[in-house]
């Protein structure tokens, strides 16, 4: 299903990195030249039962690394923090359709801040619910795990939803990334890519071994499947 045109982007999720050695882990990713983005997962302990990073982590990464910074807000009330993340260097901010704040208001605010806008859906949310917001979007994020923790298993049941999202984006003229996040490794990456994803978020599988090994293996399996 993948349109097969654009290169697959890999986003290194720092949720899977060593919190006491974030700079070391990101340097190892940068040296591979195989992951163009960094994803910063933000959780509020309400929308997802975890707490993670804030705007200052984005600023610190921006200061030291050239990565495109993708901020994924797993929050009930993301509106309050959009400006802070934008000011600190986020290149893209994604909010959840299931959040309590109005998605359209959040998306318009993100774009007015000069940042790319994404909308995410949890595994059980039908992808068609994204459709009314499509013209505001630079990215659609299909979660293949429940929000909250790295290291969960990829939900294969979401594959048809990724294909449906790809069809929806193509019908609307393309021009939007389709990102998949959750349980991505060298086995599941090809499946997600074949289903239509062009951005793959990888956390625990990426940092489980040296990134030069995990990323090379992932790129190889993705290449093979898209040939
Ligand atoms: C879940 C997070 C994770 C993270 C990636 O809330 O969104 O999916 O980005 O971690 P792994 O790759 O371990 O699922």
The shape is globular
Number of domains: 1
Helicity level, as a percent range?
A: 25-40%
Portion of residues in beta strands equals: 15-25%
CATH class: Alpha Beta
- Supply the CATH architecture: Alpha-Beta Barrel
- By CATH, the topology is TIM Barrel
Question: What about the largest sheet?
Answer: 8 strands, parallel, barrel
CATH H-level superfamily title: Aldolase class I
**Ligand types:** D-xylitol-5-phosphate
Number of helices: 8
Oligomeric form = single chain
Which strand order does the major sheet show?
1-2-3-4-5-6-7-8
Helix-strand sequence: EHEHEHEHEEHEHEHH
- Overall SS class: alpha/beta
Q: Count the beta strands.
A: 8
Key descriptive features of the protein:
227 residues; alpha/beta; TIM Barrel; binds D-xylitol-5-phosphate
Task: Write structural notes for this entry.
It is a single chain. It contains eight helices and eight strands. The chain is α/β, with parallel strands linked by helices and 227 residues long. The chain has a single domain (9-226), classed as TIM Barrel (Alpha-Beta Barrel), CATH 3.20.20.70. The chain is globular, with a radius of gyration of 16 Å. The model is unreliable at 1-5 (pLDDT under 50). It has an eight-stranded parallel barrel with strand order 1-2-3-4-5-6-7-8, surrounded by four helices. The chain has helices at 22-32, 55-64, 82-87, 103-112, 159-171, 188-195, 204-207, 211-226, and strands at residues 9-13, 37-43, 68-74, 92-96, 116-121, 139-143, 177-181, 199-202. The longest helix is centred in the last third of the chain and has 16 residues, at 211-226.
């Amino acid at each position: 299903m993948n349109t097969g045109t654009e290169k697959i982007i890999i986003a290194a999720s720092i949720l899977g990195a060593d919190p006491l050695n974030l700079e070391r882990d990101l340097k190892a990713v940068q040296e591979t030249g195989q992951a163009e983005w960094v994803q910063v997962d933000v959780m509020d302990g309400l929308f997802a039962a975890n707490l993670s990073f804030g705007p200052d982590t984005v600023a610190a990464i921006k200061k030291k690394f050239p990565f495109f910074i993708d901020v994924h807000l797993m929050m009930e009330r993301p509106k309050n923090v959009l400006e802070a993340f934008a000011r600190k260097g986020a290149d893209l901010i994604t909010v959840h359709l299931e959040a309590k704040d109005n998605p359209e208001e959040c998306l318009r605010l993100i774009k007015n801040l000069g940042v790319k806008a994404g909308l995410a859906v949890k595994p059980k949310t039908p992808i068609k619910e994204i459709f009314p917001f499509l013209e505001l979007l630079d990215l659609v994020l299909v979660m293949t795990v429940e929000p909250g923790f790295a290291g969960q298993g990829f939900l294969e049941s979401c594959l048809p939803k990724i294909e449906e999202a790809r069809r929806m984006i193509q019908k609307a003229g393309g021009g939007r990334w389709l990102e998949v996040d959750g349980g991505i490794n060298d086995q599941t990456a090809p499946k997600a890519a074949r289903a239509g994803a062009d951005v793959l978020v990888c956390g625990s599988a990426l940092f489980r071994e040296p990134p030069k090994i995990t990323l090379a293996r992932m790129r190889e399996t993705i290449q093979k499947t898209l040939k």
